[in-house]
């Protein structure tokens, strides 16, 4: 029995004239209204907004923590299975024989810079150092905090959060979009990934709602990333200049004035870069930040705790891979005991927070990955989008985090790194390795590297938001639309910082991530269904193309 051909036409209404020419007005205006309401609420009632977001954060973590754990496992397993399976791994994300648009180096640079660069700079020292003090093995009494025996656990959990699971979330989004857009000819927008399940109904309100959910998740996910970035940018500025107004009284956290000042500079540069498009500003900035990234890694390799870091890298990868099946499905719930409550609190503050962050970031990174990956095979895409970036993160964490831990264990740092704020710990590590004058120079280089990551992420996000609003049309739109979303992102981050600091931005992101987590799960199911149907068409002699 022949199976009917796949859907190849998904009309999405766009305006023919006026300010919104080329855009779907429902998605564009609906997204702006929701973002605008958030800005007005947080600006007009900052204390109320901060308290409400804090209360909602506890509810979401308690009610949906298990969902986040299991759905991330589903994303990871789906991507790896499709890449490993011979019939699906050979599928080209484009026309048969089509060549990739970008070189492998530029492709990887853009993918890595947009996907995880900022957070990696913040957490490469901060997370291993934190888990050096507390992690599930410490909480359950298996190892002693801040001792040599806890190092393996510190890296195992750091690799868990920045490894295959994170990139699997991104890769699945991009894979579904690239398959349905470049193989089926559907618009390059989120709703296209659901066509095997909902068909032509996605041309209407259901599809509009899906794209609005993706835009809001993107705005809030990018806001968290840029929020961490501007905090570290301000900390780096303080390490270079020593200007007292940059830091709060505790000396570990940047002041709101410093972060908002940095935000305005960064978003201004990002908007200018976005105006130049993917092939110019984003491409060259991505290549620059990859070059600076390798320079700093080379510095750590020469001047850092190389032997300690390399051991942490290889042992950590082994521990991570062996522990991954259990770690990615283990859920801890508060049970009234000190240990049970501590495990649940740790998982909520780290693993579940990360999973929500990656999911919120997935519409942006996934669509961007699809945009730059046309012409590559499914297997090549998954290797490039999951395994290579994971290894890069592991190397970075081992070199930066390993050096920091070794300095605390054996190098006489005397808690200078442990007691520094999260955004300052990388600079505190540099201060331990170099003389004051050289530390200032290295800090300046790191600030430039951070700036390139921030600009790359923000300008890519602006372009992706406009692509979703324009029903998947990648052609450049009016500059005013780029400016509007650049200003909107700046305002969202600013008002949330003033309402409750980085924690308010994190909570808003968790809220935005939740609906998209369901959308992405459905995209995975839809992709599996489409590939199975294509296999059935091949067996019955029906056309897959």
Automatic annotation (TrEMBL):
<dbReference type="InterPro" id="IPR000060">
    <property type="entry name" value="BCCT_transptr"/>
</dbReference>
<feature type="transmembrane region" description="Helical">
    <location>
        <begin position="508"/>
        <end position="532"/>
    </location>
</feature>
<feature type="transmembrane region" description="Helical">
    <location>
        <begin position="352"/>
        <end position="370"/>
    </location>
</feature>
<feature type="transmembrane region" description="Helical">
    <location>
        <begin position="212"/>
        <end position="238"/>
    </location>
</feature>
<feature type="transmembrane region" description="Helical">
    <location>
        <begin position="433"/>
        <end position="455"/>
    </location>
</feature>
<feature type="transmembrane region" description="Helical">
    <location>
        <begin position="290"/>
        <end position="317"/>
    </location>
</feature>
<feature type="transmembrane region" description="Helical">
    <location>
        <begin position="64"/>
        <end position="85"/>
    </location>
</feature>
<dbReference type="Pfam" id="PF02028">
    <property type="entry name" value="BCCT"/>
</dbReference>
<feature type="transmembrane region" description="Helical">
    <location>
        <begin position="382"/>
        <end position="405"/>
    </location>
</feature>
<feature type="transmembrane region" description="Helical">
    <location>
        <begin position="159"/>
        <end position="182"/>
    </location>
</feature>
<dbReference type="InterPro" id="IPR018093">
    <property type="entry name" value="BCCT_CS"/>
</dbReference>
<feature type="transmembrane region" description="Helical">
    <location>
        <begin position="258"/>
        <end position="278"/>
    </location>
</feature>
<keyword id="KW-1133">Transmembrane helix</keyword>
<keyword id="KW-0813">Transport</keyword>
<protein>
    <submittedName>
        <fullName>BCCT family transporter</fullName>
    </submittedName>
</protein>
<keyword id="KW-0472">Membrane</keyword>
<feature type="transmembrane region" description="Helical">
    <location>
        <begin position="482"/>
        <end position="502"/>
    </location>
</feature>
<comment type="similarity">
    <text>Belongs to the BCCT transporter (TC 2.A.15) family.</text>
</comment>
<feature type="transmembrane region" description="Helical">
    <location>
        <begin position="21"/>
        <end position="44"/>
    </location>
</feature>
<feature type="transmembrane region" description="Helical">
    <location>
        <begin position="105"/>
        <end position="123"/>
    </location>
</feature>
<keyword id="KW-0812">Transmembrane</keyword>
<keyword id="KW-1003">Cell membrane</keyword>
